[in-house]
Structures are given as structure tokens and as C-alpha cells.
Amino acid sequence: MQSSMGVDSARLSVSDVTKRYTHGEADVTAVRGVSLEIDSNEVVGILGPNGAGKTTLIKTILGVLRPTEGTVEINGLDVHEKQRRTYELVSAMFEGSRNSYWRLSVEENLRFFTSLNGKNPKERTDRYDELLEELDIEDKRDETVNKLSRGMKQKVCLACTLARETPLVFLDEPTLGLDVEASEHLKTELRRLVDSENRTIVLSSHDMDLIEEICDRVIIMNEGRIVADDSVEALIDVFRTESYELEVSGLTSQQQARLEREFPVDAVERNGDSTVFEATFDDVAGKDRLVERLVGDGASIERLEPVEPDLKEIFIEVAGEESEEQAEVVAR
Predict the structure, then answer these.
(1) Using one digit for the tens of pLDDT, what is the confidence trace for 42-58?
(2) Whole-structure pTM value
(3) First vs last Cα of the chain: how many Å apart?
(4) Which fold has domain 12-236?
């Protein structure tokens, strides 16, 4: 199947993949029996704490590592048996890796990576212009990559990956080093590639906003296994609770202390006559009892709003407590 741009679509199938490493007499299992299917026209995010097996899984999918058990296929082709043919369908950018040639200029890199798939680089000049403009590096076109800043190098690597115009694209931390404007341009471009050109994009990132905003689906890994695999909306529905943020006035210190003993309140902040806190209940009746108590105590409810879970909270809940510190670093 081909899109209007002539780019073949790609379907990824991972079946019971396990990857073990031998260290001396001990075996370390990085990926444990992972199976997944990714279709065309999808943006899929892969999340997980450090050591969850994300990078090992991605490198196994790309053919960089051979699985101990299981198979990986793209359009029915085994990536480890038909490497040359599957490489024509996939492009990838790894975090912290040299994804471009530093002794070449920016445009020379674009031409080189375009040629890998048998395309004539001279015929894709308009595409180079688009990528350079979207990433705000038009004025760096003739500079050698080794003279650029880290952020600029990241943009060049991203441009080179997208310039190959493969149907399946893997991006590891694509917004790292990008300014806000470039990040927004990237989000728009990735959605356009999927919606207009039938591409499939797999993102591995700690940028929760990026994942939540553009991904159709999120896969969360922990200890080498997939522990969640669904749309962002479906995951939020699963973890949605009767949680509220309230701002009240006229609550005495004694009344506040009693409230904290009798109700599941948290994150209490007091500023003068105003008290702000969160409360989570098993059902709506719990909220009604809290409101009744506040009114009975003579407090005025200035604000009562439901609190929606976000992807960061879901990630921490699903991947375990060890993920909380990493999520906090991302939030900062």
C-alpha cells in the first residue's frame, strides 16, 4: 500500500520477544515476552522508568540487537533475517547518539540520508527547505555539523531522520535540546506525517506533554514487560477518580484539623482566611458529605473543581514508585 506521497505503509509485529544478557554466570533479562502490534497512521509513545527495557526493545525492533526468543516483523518481513529490505522501511534517531555526520554540512547530511533509500537527493530540495524552516536552521544549511551547538545538532539529526521519508519512524527523545517554538513545530509536523502521509511514528520520551498531546496510543513498560497499552484517553478513564480541588474561606484551624482526620484530604495550603486542598473519594456521596460538613462549619466554598488525572500520574501509578522521581525531574 502506498500513500499519495508514494511512501509505503508499515505494520510492525512483535511476538513474544525476550532479550537476555549473560554477565559472568548470571543472566539479566532486559525484555520479557513482549508482544505488540503497531499499524499505519499511528503515533505510539513508549514510556517507562530507567531500566524498564525500552531501549533494548527498540534496538531489538530495529535489528540492532537480536532477540533471545521471539520475532520482529515489518510488513511480514523478519527484521533479523531480511535486514536490507526492512531497513528501507525504517528510520531512527537515538538520544545522545551521533545520528549525523559531523564533518559534512547540514545540507550534505540531508542529501546523504535521502540517498539511502535510493531517492535522488537533488529532487528533494523543497523537502529540505521545509525541514530546515520548521526546525529554524535555514541559516545553518552550509555549516558543518561539528560547529553547531548541541541543540542545533539535535535539530539536524531530526531533520536527517525525517528526510529519509520512511513509513516507520522511531524517535528517541526528539524534543531534547529544542526550544518551545521548535517543539511545537515538531508536534505539528509529526501529526501531519501520520495524518497526511500514512506514516507510523514511535516515540520514546520523558516529555509527558509531547506524548499526551500527539500520541494515539501509549505503551508503558516496567521490568521488561508491557504493563499498560491503550489510548491516552482510555488510560485516563481507567484512572479517573472522584477527586476534587476546593478553595474555602472561614475555616478555623481546629475545623481544618478535624477535616483532615475525618476526610481523605491532601495538599492542604492555608493563606490567611483561604484554605486550598484536594480530596479524593470512592464515590460522589463522599464529596457531598464533605460539602455538608463545610457548610455546617460555617465555611464558604469559593471553588470546587474536579481534578483530572494526567499522563504523569498514570505513569507513576502503573510503573511504580521508582518512576516518581523521574517524572518529577521531567516536570521541572
Answers:
(1) 999 999 888 899 999 99
(2) 0.75
(3) 43
(4) Rossmann fold (3.40.50)
pLDDT in tens, 111-163: 999 998 788 888 899 999 999 998 889 999 999 999 998 888 988 998 999 99
C-alpha cell at 291: 460539602
In the chain, residues under CATH classification 3.30.70.980 are: 241-306
The answer to whether the CB of 276 falls within 8 A of the CB of 268 is: yes
**Alpha-carbon dihedral 121, 124, 125, 128, rounded to 10 degrees:** -100
- In the chain, which segments carry CATH 3.40.50.300? 12-236
Q: Mark out the alpha helices in 204-245 (DSSP H runs).
A: 208-214, 232-239
Instruction: Please name the residue ranges forming H helices in 65-179.
Output: 83-87, 106-115, 125-134, 150-163
> Using only C-alpha atoms, what is the Rg of the chain?
24
Q: Are the CB atoms for 201 and 169 separated by under 8 Å?
A: yes
Instruction: Give the integer Cα–Cα distance in Å for 262 and 18.
Output: 49
CB 219 within 8 A of CB 36: yes
CA dist., res. 181 & res. 118, Å (int):
33
Strand-pair category, 225-230 with 274-281: unpaired
- With H, G, I as helix, E, B as strand and everything else as coil, classify residue 227: strand
CATH 3.30.70.980 fits 241-306, yes or no: yes
Question: Which residue stretches of 164-231 are H helix?
Answer: 180-197, 208-214
E strands, the chain, are 12-23, 26-38, 43-47, 69-74, 77-78, 90-93, 168-172, 200-204, 217-222, 225-230, 242-249, 265-271, 274-281, 300-306
